[in-house]
Amino acid sequence: MANTKSKIFIRENLGATIKKYRLMHGISVEDLAKMLNLSVAFVGLIERGFRGVNLKNLVRISEIFDMDINDLLYDTDSTPIVESPEMKKIRALTALATDLSEKELDFAIESIKCLKKMRD
Questions:
Q1: Whole-angstrom Cα distance, residue 32 to residue 28?
Q2: Which residues, including other chains, have CB under 8 Å from residue 17's CB and lie 6 or more apart?
């Protein structure tokens, strides 16, 4: 069984591969989301490696891109860029904020400002 780091790497690599082929085929995130019956935010999370893909959607993605599922799974040219722990936290924060209302975003911003004031 794969350890947590391996699972994260696999998820990130698959997400990067999906994004690569989506862009190569000129498909927008919105259109891919519609084709998969998923939200745009969820497809974004998949492409950034925060969420995995179930088998049904993996098969559907390979059909959309007209490619063998093995090529999608084992694309070695889509290795994600290694990023700092701080950038990963910023990406995680951004992903969490994508579904917030404007009022909730304003509250989150004010909360972060308060945290910074308390720290300083």
A1: 6
A2: 72, 73, 75, 78
